[in-house]
Amino acid sequence: MSLRSSSVLAGQPLQGRSRVIVKTVCYRFVMLCITVTIAWLFVGDVGDALNIGIAANLVKTGTYYGYERLWDRIEWGARTTGASGPRNTR
After folding, report:
1. Does the N terminus or the C terminus of the chain have fewer Cβ atoms within 10 A?
2. For the chain, what is the domain count?
């Protein structure tokens, strides 16, 4: 049985692509600052800390975007709105 036929995956994403991109960029910026700060505390060099932070965050940004898009298609636990107001789907 595939995930799509199990009724866990929604046919359409619950968020627009641009919303996911903005959320991803904002989140990764915060994480970049944290990563660079921690790396700087360990290595003691700002340039090395920036290199570590940038490399790690490039990989993590792509991973987060894909993960968010996958979860956007999963109906389980999501709230939907209808004539009777918000409700849990499962």
Report:
1. N
2. 1
Return d(Cα 53, Cα 31) in angstroms, integer: 9
62-76 pLDDT, tens digit each: 888 889 889 888 888
89 lies in some domain? no
Structure tokens at 23: 């959320």
Q: How far is residue 8's CA from residue 2's CA, in Å, rounded to a whole number?
A: 10
Q: What's the CA gap between 90 and 80, in Å, rounded? A: 10
Q: pLDDT tens-digit profile of 8-39?
A: 666 677 788 888 889 878 988 999 999 999 99
Q: State how far the Cα of 27 lies from the Cα of 29, in Å rounded to an integer.
A: 5
Token readout for 1 is 């049985």
Residue 71 · residue 20 · CB < 8 Å:
no
**What domain range includes position 35?**
15-74
